[in-house]
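Task: sequence design from structure.
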C-alpha cells in the first residue's frame, strides 16, 4: 500500500511538471472518474435504494455458514444452519441499500497532435456501504458490506479506457440474523455451544453437535484490470477481471487458493489442522489454474429522449469459485474440482435517468432482473432470481 501511494505522489509531481506545456492540461478533482460504473453490475460503485423480490419462495431459504463439531466422533466440518422456518411467499421482499462515492483525485490530459491521439490519465478512489434488510417482521438486517477501490485509468482518443487498481471488500452477517440463528437452533452457550436443534444438512438424527464458530465476515484484497470502449450513438462496452492477491481470501473461507490463506480464515486454526482441511485443499489445487477469479463484462446503450436518458444495460459475471460447489450445489472447503463449471450471474434491465441533476448527481428510476447470487457479500453461496425496482444516483 505504501508503494502505491508513493507511486501516486511521483505521478502527481511528473504530471504537474508536464502540465506547464501547451500539449498538456492538469485538473484537480474533476467531476467524475473516466471509467463509468454499470447500473447492472451487482458489485459496481453505484448508489441506490431498491425493493428486491425473490421470484421463488424456495430461494428465500437463507442459512448461516458455520463451523461445527460432531461431539461423539470429534469430527469438525463446515455446514449451513437455518435461521427460521421456511418463509411464506409474502416474505420474499427485501430492501437493498447501497451508499457509494467515487471521486477523481487528479487528471492530466495530453491534448494530442495531428499524428497522435489524445490521452487522459486519471487517479481515483471509490467506495460503498451495502446492506440488505428484510421487509417483514422487525426488518432484520441480513448483511453489511464495505468496499473501496484505488485505481488509475488511461483513456485514449476519448474512446478506449483501461483501468488498473486495488479492490478491497469485507462484510459480515447482521447481528439480528445471527441471534435468530442461535435461537432457532437452540445453541446453548452455557454448555460449550451445544446445538439442541441442529438444522445442518450434514447432521444425522440422534447425534450431538457443537457450534465452534460462524463465519461472521468475508474479506478480500484483489487486483482489478478493466477496459471500456465508448462507441458512437451512446453505446458502451466494458469488461473487467478481478484477481485475488495470494495472501487474501474470498467469499468467505473456501476460495483461498493458498494453504496459508485457508489456514488463516477457516474460522478455527486448530480445527482446520486436525481435520486436515488445509493439506487436502492445498493438494487439490496445487498445479491447477484455480485463482478464484471473477471475470465480467457487459454493455450499456443510452438513448436521448429530451428530458431524460433511457439506459438499457446488461452484465454477465463469471466466478471461478463455482468449482468449489459440491453435488448439492453448496460451497465446501474441500469440494474443489477443476471439472466443475464456473458459476455465472446475469443481470439486465433499464433506467430512466433525469437530465436535471440533484445535488450534482444524476437521478435514475431503475428496474433490473438478476439471476445469480444474493445482493449481499456474506450470502455469496445463495443463488436465485431477483427483481430490483427503485432509485439510483450517479
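Answer:
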Amino acid at each position: 500500500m505504501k508503494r502505491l501511494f508513493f507511486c501516486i505522489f511521483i505521478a502527481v509531481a511528473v504530471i504537474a511538471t508536464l502540465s506547464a506545456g501547451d500539449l498538456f492540461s492538469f485538473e484537480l478533482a474533476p467531476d467524475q472518474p473516466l471509467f463509468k460504473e454499470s447500473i447492472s453490475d451487482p458489485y459496481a460503485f453505484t448508489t441506490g435504494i431498491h425493493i428486491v423480490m425473490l421470484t421463488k419462495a424456495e430461494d428465500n431459504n437463507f442459512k448461516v455458514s458455520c463451523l461445527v463439531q460432531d461431539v461423539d466422533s470429534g469430527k469438525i466440518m463446515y455446514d449451513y444452519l437455518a435461521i427460521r422456518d421456511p418463509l411464506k411467499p409474502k416474505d420474499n421482499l427485501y430492501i437493498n441499500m447501497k451508499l457509494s462515492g467515487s471521486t477523481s483525485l487528479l487528471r492530466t490530459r495530453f491534448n494530442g497532435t495531428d499524428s497522435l491521439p489524445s490521452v487522459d490519465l486519471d487517479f481515483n478512489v471509490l467506495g460503498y456501504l451495502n446492506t440488505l434488510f428484510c421487509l417483514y417482521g422487525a426488518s432484520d438486517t441480513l448483511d453489511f458490506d464495505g468496499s473501496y477501490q484505488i485505481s488509475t485509468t488511461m483513456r485514449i482518443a476519448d474512446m478506449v479506457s483501461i483501468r488498473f487498481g486495488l479492490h478491497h471488500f469485507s462484510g459480515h452477517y447482521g447481528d439480528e440474523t445471527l441471534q435468530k440463528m442461535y435461537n432457532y437452533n437452540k445453541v446453548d452457550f452455557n454448555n460449550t455451544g451445544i446445538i439442541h436443534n441442529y438444522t445442518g444438512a450434514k447432521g444425522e438424527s440422534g447425534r450431538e453437535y457443537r457450534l465452534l464458530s460462524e463465519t461472521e465476515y468475508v474479506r478480500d484484497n484483489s487486483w482489478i484490470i478493466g477496459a471500456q470502449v465508448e462507441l458512437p450513438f451512446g453505446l458502451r462496452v466494458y469488461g473487467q477481471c478481478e484477481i485475488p492477491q495470494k495472501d487474501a481470501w474470498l467469499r468467505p473461507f473456501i476460495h483461498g487458493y493458498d494453504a496459508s490463506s485457508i489456514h488463516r480464515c477457516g474460522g478455527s486454526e486448530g480445527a482446520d489442522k486436525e481435520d486436515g482441511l488445509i493439506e487436502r485443499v492445498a493438494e487439490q489445487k496445487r498445479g491447477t489454474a484455480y485463482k478464484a477469479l471473477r471475470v465480467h463484462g457487459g454493455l450499456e446503450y443510452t438513448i436521448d429522449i429530451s428530458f431524460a436518458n433511457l439506459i438499457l444495460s446488461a452484465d454477465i459475471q463469471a466466478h471461478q469459485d463455482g468449482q468449489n460447489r459440491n453435488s448439492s450445489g453448496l460451497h465446501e472447503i474441500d469440494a474443489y474440482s477443476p471439472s466443475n463449471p464456473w458459476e455465472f450471474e446475469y443481470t439486465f434491465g433499464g433506467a430512466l435517468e433525469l437530465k436535471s441533476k440533484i445535488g450534482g448527481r444524476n437521478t435514475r428510476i431503475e428496474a433490473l432482473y438478476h439471476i445469480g447470487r444474493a445482493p449481499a457479500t456474506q450470502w455469496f453461496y445463495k443463488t436465485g432470481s431477483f427483481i430490483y425496482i427503485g432509485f439510483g444516483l450517479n
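Confidence is low (pLDDT under 50) at residues 250-254, 256-276.
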